[in-house]
Design brief:
Elements (H helix, E strand, L loop, with lengths): L4 H14 L5 H5 L8 E4 L3 H10 L6 E4 L3 H10 L16 E4 L2 H7 L2 E4 L3 H11 L8 E4 L12 H9 L6 E5 L4 H5 L4 E6 L3 H11 L4 E6 L2 H24 L3 H22 L9 H12 L4 H10 L4 H8 L5 H15 L4 H11 L4 H9 L4
Helix pairs in contact: 1-9, 10-11, 10-12, 10-13, 10-15, 10-16, 13-14, 15-16, 16-17
Length: about 350
Amino acid sequence: MLCSGAARDAFAKVAPRIGTAVSGCVYLCSMDSNPRIGLIGSGSWATAIAKILLTNISELHWWVRREETRDHLLQFGRNPHYIQSIEFDTQKLSVSTDMQSVVDACDILIVAIPSGYLDATVQEHAPKRLKNKIIISAIKGMVVEYNSIPARYFHKEFGVPYERIGLIAGPCHAEEVAREKLSYLTVACPDLSIAQIVADAMATRYIRVRISEDVVGAELAAVLKNIYAIGAGIATGLGYGDNFLSVLISNASQEMKRFLAAVHEHDRDVKESAYLGDLLVTAYSPHSRNRTLGMMIGKGYSVKGAIMEMNMVAEGFNGSNGTFHLNQKFTVDMPIADSVYRILHERMSPVIEMRLLTEQLA
């Protein structure tokens, strides 16, 4: 069942003040109808989200870039490029390469496009009327062209009110979702009734979901954890051991706490899974692309060579640049993030930067 009674009651109270633009959510909470949820993106995380959603909803409107991906999904029920072990019921899929058709068909849009490609993709396909939708970001990075978190991007570029912008966060690798390993997510939105609707849509026997109001903090934490994972990977590639890594990540969590407090004051506990949990899994997991990128650099690859060799998106590369420039305004002491930035974007020596960093950690 998608919506709990408490969620429907909460939504009924808030619907008048958020206007007719979310009238589709009344339909969403109807016990006789399927929710109108759209998914934008076709990478590994998008594919995992599709698997989660289709546990609870009867139809998923899904935008993919390539016609071959659409055709393969509809014919064989599998994404030909990502996590092919996940098999979908094709009767529940409405897959299209026309983004506007997906936008028009849905009230809630979950966007899972890598941050480095977000603006170019959305502008190319020019979806209209986004401001009348609920946008849930599943992006863990900065929008490169604006050095901006996705929430601010959707608000500034498309006029989507902040109260209708949410985020899916938490320590949850797509590969483990495919194997139905127990995982935990946080759905954040200033309007908790919207967060609850999305949380209900994503709760399964192997996915536990909580809700939060801290969209900005959770988005920034998702950016930072990728940067710190690159740092952890660099240290590992250089031969530093677990003892040093534990100190590195402990200090990274304190950096995260300082930065979030400076940028967006909120009553948050950074030890919760959406913050510290996501940091830990990204820094230590072999599934982590950002850790892998860092390890390759630590082992001697150039930054460009490592990125080309991976053939996957490591969000921390752009995130480190965006965070560094954002921090010019707030001047928070961030020695780890700054070291990663210098290695990635100023061609500083990983050996020297990590050696200097060891003198700054406590």
